[in-house]
Each structure stands twice: as structure tokens, then as C-alpha cells.
Amino acid sequence: MKRILLAEDEEIIRMLIVDTLEDEDYHVDEAADGEEALQLFERNEYDLLILDYMMPGYTGMEVIKKVRAGLVNSEVKILMLSAKSQKHEQEMILSVGANEFMQKPFSPLQLIEKVKAILDED
User: Fold this and answer.
1) Omega into 105 within 30° of 0, i.e. cis?
2) What is the C-alpha to C-alpha distance for residues 67 and 111, in angstroms, rounded to an integer?
3) In this chain, where does the modification 4-aspartylphosphate occur (predicted)?
4) What do you get for the CA distance between the two ends of the chain, in Å?
5) What are phi and psi of 25, to 5 degrees?
6) Neighbours of 66 (CB within 10 A)
């Protein structure tokens, strides 16, 4: 079973994403902010990180920079979620180390398709 760490500060969105991913048999750990996400990441091994762009504590961008600079599992796949839609913002997110970007709002089907593509699953 693939392990995913979801960091999203909006509880309702977090619950919807967790339900969607668990329905597809992924194990999902949740973090409400960037600091909690980094703590979980340091203690567990994940196949994918799903990060919200704007979170209290550390932003999604700061989490990516810390993960990519780390020694443990620094090559983990990362999907950034954001309401930001400007091309330069998306390019910046990818340039700091995200593998993929997904604009909010999105459907559960779009999320599952993106996650499966990132994890190379059919």
C-alpha cells in the first residue's frame, strides 16, 4: 500500500482528499500545517507528499525546499495544490522541486488521476 502525506490547513478540504485517497486504498497521514508535515516526514517514509501552497507555519514551498535539501527520502514525489494559477507561480513551484502542480478547485477524479500518474500506477 502506497503511503501519502497530505498537508492542508483547511480541514474540510483535507477530509475530502483523505476520503478520496483512502477509497483508492492509499494510506494517508494528515498534517494541518507545514511544521506538522515536516515532523511526520522525518518519522515516516512516504511515496508521495501532497502539499497546499499556502499554510501556516511553513508554506508548501518551504516544506519542499526542506525536503529536497534533506538526507532522508529527499527524492520523494511531491504534488503541490494551489489556487494560484499564474504561469510564473506554477513554474516557481516546479523549479523548487515539486513534481506536479494541481490547481484548486479540482474534482476527486482529477486528483486520483494525478496521483496515479505521479506514482506510475495505471
Assistant:
1) yes
2) 22
3) 52
4) 15
5) 65, 35
6) 16
> Hey, what domains does the chain have and what are their CATH numbers?
3-117 (3.40.50.2300)
Helices (H), 1-122: 11-23, 34-43, 60-69, 87-95, 108-118
Q: Is 96 helix (H, G, I), strand (E, B) or coil?
A: coil
Q: For residues 98 and 12, what is the distance between their CA atoms, to the nearest angstrom? A: 24
Q: pTM (2 decimals)?
A: 0.95
121 falls in which pLDDT band (50, 70, 90)?
confident
% pLDDT > 90, the chain = 84
Q: Are 21 and 48 in contact (CB under 8 A)?
A: no
pLDDT averaged over the chain? 94
